[in-house]
Design brief:
By secondary structure, this protein is α/β, with parallel strands linked by helices. About 35% of the residues lie in helices and about 25% in strands. The strands form 2 sheets. Strands 3-2-1-6-7 form a 5-stranded mixed sheet, with helices on both faces. It has a two-stranded antiparallel sheet with strand order 4-5. The chain is elongated, with a radius of gyration of 19 Å.
Length: about 150
């Protein structure tokens, strides 16, 4: 897939978002970083000390343990929500088209938080985690992606 001039490329995962804009043309893309955000996720031990609760099972008198919250998972959901909101707000000043690259979990979360206006700006969704890669590697990933 070719990246047209001034198209935004968003690389997102649960902890990092990189927004790039193609300042080149479709044949020779030149991706420039517009925005870079990274979540500061503390260690699990530092996030909380709450133990999982217990419940009394209906069949018997022995208590059953409940599964504890995955604090890292909760932080990733918050980060993707904030990233989606940030992209929605940026759309009020520009209607630039967006190519979204995200790992499958983050892509699903993004869709959940995405409003109609932002969804209309997205021209391609690529289910790959490339937020940690270089701009050239991201451009190559988009280039080899075939839209269905």
């Amino acid at each position: 897939m070719k990246i047209d001039h001034r198209v935004m490329v968003v690389a997102l995962n649960g902890r990092k978002m990189v927004v790039l804009r193609n300042e080149g043309d479709a044949r020779y893309p030149a991706l420039e970083v517009v925005l870079h955000r990274e979540a500061e996720t503390p260690r699990t031990a530092d996030q909380g000390k709450a133990r999982p609760g217990q419940t009394t099972a209906t069949a018997g008198t022995r208590p059953s343990a409940l599964e504890g919250n995955d604090l890292h998972e909760e932080e990733e959901v918050k980060f993707v929500s904030a990233a989606t909101e940030s992209l929605s707000r940026s759309g009020t000043s520009t209607d630039a088209k967006i190519i979204l690259l995200a790992d499958p979990k983050s892509l699903g979360r993004f869709r959940k938080f995405c409003d109609d206006h932002l969804a209309g700006r997205i021209i391609a969704e690529i289910p790959q985690n490339v937020a940690h890669r270089t701009t050239d590697a991201i451009a190559k990933t988009v280039d080899v992606f075939e839209q269905e």
